[in-house]
Amino acid sequence: MTTPSLPMPSMSALGSSGFKLSKEHLVLAVPVVVVAAAGGFLVGQYLSRRGCKKGQVNTSISKDSPKVVHSFDMEDIGTKAVYCRCWKSKKFPYCDGAHAKHNEETGDNVGPLIVKKRDT
Ligand code: FES
Questions:
Q1: What is the topology classification, in CATH, of domain 57-120?
Q2: Longest dimension (CA), the chain
Q3: pLDDT digits (tens, 9 = 90+) for 27-44
Q4: Using CA positions, which residue lies closest to atom 4 of ligand 1?
Q5: pLDDT of 9
Q6: 92 CB within 6 A, ligand 1
Q7: What distances in angstroms separate CA 38 from CA 25, 41, 76, 79, one per listed residue?
Q8: Gyration radius of the chain's alpha carbons
Q9: Which residues are catalytic?
Q10: Which of 89, 90, 94, 108 to mutate to test the pocket of ligand 1 (most atoms within 8 A of CB)?
Q11: Phi, psi angle pair for 2, to nearest 5°
Q12: Which of 2, 44, 61, 105 has the smallest set of CB atoms within 10 Å of its CB?
């Protein structure tokens, strides 16, 4: 009894490395590789621009403004004010405790700025 075998190309058709592309295959393969590389590059550029730029700490607050600035008169602060320094507070510029979750998720150690009147 004989076992069926798959047709195998002869070694002379494969070349010395066992892999050989014809000119027709190269004419097809090169544009496909170039288009795939260009597409990957463009998708990468698009995704990197959509996300936050590297090093940004402010991911959501007044992003349409070139600079986020808050100013308070000392007389209006009262006896104590707690300001956010992690940029995660939903009540920015005031701290709402969101720094605790940020610290837990990232291993960071940020906390608020507390301004208070001295006890007399
Ligand atoms: S929420 Fe940002 S420092 Fe507390």
A1: Ribosomal Protein L9; domain 1 (3.40.5)
A2: 106
A3: 888 888 888 888 888 877
A4: 95
A5: 56
A6: no
A7: 20, 5, 57, 59
A8: 31
A9: 67
A10: 89
A11: -105, 145
A12: 2
Cβ–Cβ < 8 Å for 84, 92: yes
Amino acid at 101: K
In sign, the C-alpha dihedral spanning 49, 53, 58, 59 is positive
Q: SS3 string of the chain?
A: CCCCCCCCCCHHHHCCCCCCCCHHHHHHHHHHHHHHHHHHHHHHHHHHHHCCCCCCCCCCCCCCCCCCCCCCCHHHHCCEEEECCCCCCCCCCECCCHHHHHHHHHCCCCCCEEEECCCC
pLDDT at 12 over 80: no
Would you kindly state where each structural domain of the chain is located, as residue ranges?
A: 21-50, 57-120
